[in-house]
Amino acid sequence: MEGGKVMSNLYKEPNRHTCPDIDEVRDTIESASNEISEFIKDYLYHVPQKLEKLRRSNDELRCWGNDLVNHSQELEDFIIDLENQLVLANSTIEELENQIEQLKEVK
Prior knowledge:
Largest sheet: none
């Protein structure tokens, strides 16, 4: 009887059909791949727009900085003009004080 059991096991498949499992895994990989591809395409589609927005922000920042530099230079020039006017005013005051002293001596 034992020989009969061996013969009956010989004709029984050891596993069920695996092709449906393989197909399911393959389909899952393809689906995930497509979803990832769509995500990447969508992301990459928006990258140039984001870069252009960043470029505009950098340009605005650069212009702002240049305006500050120009304004600072204008203020420095204004300070130099005021200092020159002060030197001239002090010189004029000194000359006038000398003239006053000379006039006092003449009296």
